[in-house]
Specification:
Layout (H helix, E strand, L loop, with lengths): L7 H9 L5 H19 L2 E4 L1 H16 L10 E5 L26 H8 L3 E6 L33 H9 L5 E5 L5 H7 L2 E4 L19 E6 L2 H11 L29 E5 L9 H16 L3 E5 L7 H16 L17 H12 L2 H14 L5 H24 L2 E5 L14 H6 L5 H6 L3 E8 L5 E8 L4 H15 L12
Parallel strand pairs: 2-3, 2-4, 7-8, 7-9
Antiparallel strand pairs: 1-3, 4-6, 5-6, 5-10, 9-11, 10-11
The structure holds glutamine (GLN).
Glutamine (GLN) binds next to loops.
């Protein structure tokens, strides 16, 4: 077996058993990045020197019998997560030259756990998009077929894990940006409950929706990484106080007795038949493992995309107001300060970010606020209540993650069509719920298809339990052809 096929758990065992050193493992991954990343382009920056220093520190800790589950294991961060001293771009020209003086709490936690950060990963600019084609630098390619997109906005994170150029990665999800690329790239992606993981140092897109989460090869790895990054953080006022459970504890408990609902609104025109088949197969597998499945209803789903595309742009308009050329990033010259603002924002932001900022400004403007923003917020409440009703009868919801497998590059040129692709993931963010996408089949073209499990607030452990049972049953073993190098 290739080292790049090893799970985080397996790598941890090899490192702690001294069969492999962190320095060797880091060099192995840096060499793979050099070989494979020119075709995939998951990385915006590679931090080879810093990674080698961290690996030596990890080896010292391991030599002394110390170190935990993640010590010495490489990882990579989506480029909207601040890492002190390292260029953090959000895949935008706007942040040219920006090196944050502090690290995100999630990065701090990983570094304290002995993680080796290999680099920063490509994304749609400021996390707005579903393909990484809105990166201001270059699109990332799907390792399964380099003519296709890896999904987005955490496309670099999903592609790196799928290509075996990072054992695991950290992404962010505002409307599906962890789960949809996970589905497109055949990896496991978790969007935790809103407030489970600190957002401190995550460059904000839409603060009431953003959450950080792990992308991994296996469900067990995902639980392990979430354990390392979750928890209360006084630096994030929306981080929920109290202890987080042990997410791995119940993994082996099986699916027996779980009640799983399939929302009837999600199985309509617009869902690719081969994706529907994978979801229905997954339901049958869970049934054969002793779960009960049934049809449930989420009657307000038709309004979710409209509500999200008012709330997210409204919040992004306000969060992105700080990029005016004054304090950091790009500054374009202007005759006076207003012209400097205008020139900097015009040159610094790409087309999708500009579209969102304008939509947000419109939705919040006087006279339109009640008609758009307020109604979107009311709709959000109705959507949350839909889930509460379902969760009175069911423990979990099973649904597609995305309506189709990975698109071809250039195929999503119409923004509205792109927005419609978020139909199964966006409502989960509006309700603040946790949801995981895991690979459950392949299309006829050999592209991976993910399914999504959605749980009650803070029931990530139950999600992992069901996902683990399904993962064992599916036994998804396919790998992109290009990963077969050493
Ligand atoms: N595709 C969605 C959007 O463009 C979701 C993005 C995200 O989750 N960051 O807003």
């Amino acid at each position: 077996m290739r080292l790049s096929d090893c799970s985080v758990l397996e790598l941890g065992r090899l490192l702690r058993g001294r069969e492999l050193s962190a320095a060797e493992l880091t060099d192995y991954y840096l060499a793979r990045i050099e070989k494979l990343d020119p075709a995939v382009r998951a990385y915006i920056s590679v931090l080879a020197d810093e990674a080698r220093v961290k690996a030596r520190e990890a080896d010292n800790a391991l030599a002394g019998g110390g170190g935990g589950a993640l010590t010495g294991i490489p990882t990579a961060l989506k480029d909207n997560i601040c890492l002190a001293g390292a260029a953090t771009t959000c895949a935008s020209k706007m942040l040219a030259g920006f090196r944050p003086p502090y690290s995100a709490s999630v990065a701090e936690k990983l570094l304290a756990a002995g993680a080796v950060v290999l680099g920063k990963l490509n994304m749609d600019e400021f996390a707005m998009g579903s393909t990484t084609e809105y990166s201001a630098f270059f699109p990332t390619r799907n390792p399964w077929d380099t003519d296709r997109v890896p999904g987005g906005s955490s496309g670099g994170a999903a592609a790196a894990v799928a290509a075996g150029t990072a054992p695991y990665a950290i992404g962010s999800d505002t409307g599906g940006s962890i789960r949809q690329p996970a589905s497109f790239c055949g990896v496991v992606g978790m969007k935790p409950t809103y407030g489970a993981v600190s957002r401190y140092g995550l460059i904000a897109f839409a603060s009431s929706l953003d959450q950080i989460g792990p992308l991994t090869r296996t469900v067990a790895d995902n639980a392990l990484v979430l354990e390392a990054i979750a928890g209360h953080d006084p630096k994030d006022s929306t981080s929920v106080p109290g202890e987080r459970p042990n997410y791995s504890a119940g993994l082996q408990d099986g699916a027996r007795g779980l009640r799983i609902g399939l929302p009837k609104e999600f199985f309509t025109a617009g869902l690719a038949p081969e994706v529907e088949k994978v979801v229905r197969d997954s339901a049958r597998r869970l049934e054969s493992l002793g779960a009960e499945t049934g049809e449930c209803s989420l009657p307000h789903m038709d309004y979710a995309i409209a509500a999200y595309y008012l709330i997210a742009p409204a919040e992004c308009g306000s969060n992105l107001a700080r990029y005016d050329g004054t304090r950091y990033g790009l500054r374009a010259p202007g005759a006076d300060i207003i012209e400097m603002f205008q020139a900097s924002r015009s040159a610094g932001f790409g087309p999708e970010v500009k579209r969102r900022v304008m939509l947000g400004a419109y939705a919040l403007s006087s006279g339109y606020y009640d008609a758009y923003y307020l109604r979107a917020q009311k709709t959000r409440t109705l959507i949350r209540e839909d889930y509460e009703r379902v969760f009175a009868d069911y423990d979990l919801i099973l649904s597609p993650t995305a309506p189709a497998a990975a698109y071809r590059l250039g195929e999503m040129s119409d923004p509205l069509t792109m927005y419609m692709g978020d139909i199964y993931t966006i409502p989960v963010n509006l309700a603040g719920l946790p949801a995981v996408s895991l690979p459950a089949g392949l299309t006829e073209d050999g592209l991976p298809v993910g399914v999504q499990l959605i749980g009650r607030h803070f029931e990530e452990a139950l999600l992992y339990r069901a996902a683990f049972a399904l993962e064992q049953s599916v036994a998804f073993a396919a790998r992109p052809a290009l990963t077969e190098v050493d």
